[in-house]
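User: For my dataset I need records formatted as: sequence, then structure tokens, nothing else. Please produce one.
Assistant:
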Amino acid sequence: MRRNLIAGLLIASGLALAGSAVWTMHSQGSSASAPLVQMLPSTDGGGALQPRTHQNPTRQLAPTAPGPNDVIATLTIPRLAIAGAPIFERGLDSKGGMLIAHGYAVTHYAFSAGFGSGNAVLYGHDDIEGSIFARLKDLQPGDEIDVAIGEQVQRYRVSTRVIVAPTAVQILDPTPDVRLTLFTCWPNWVDTQRVVITATQL
């Protein structure tokens, strides 16, 4: 009986130590803040580009975050004959590439600012799936861009249009002002560069 008691104590001690080790590993793993990898993609499904780290904003962790099929807003650009185009929110895939909504739709990058609170980044296809941003390069300073969130309409005015390399991931960076950054691949069917439109809120 004494032998059984000692064996039982040894087993209990071993289980306690093992449990402690598992808890320690779990605690260390959950406290490590691994940076997200952010890439500027080819919006026609081309290869991933130069990665950079990006901090995970708390807005992405909100329990009321929209689902993949939820339209979070609509986009209207009179010069491009875009009227009420649906905007979906997308983040990153398992390899760190930016996801894009399918069809004639615009994508809001989930790790950029929300509308009206900083640099809200929008992107769309230029030569496939409806090619919603096929004529993005035609926008001129002063052109109007409207984002409707329910009954609320935010109006923006185009301020700049630039052509950049696919590695120009700085266009995704936060800004102190309220703006939209819209981009797509360029030239059409070649997609070696990006056309980037910046619009400031009125």
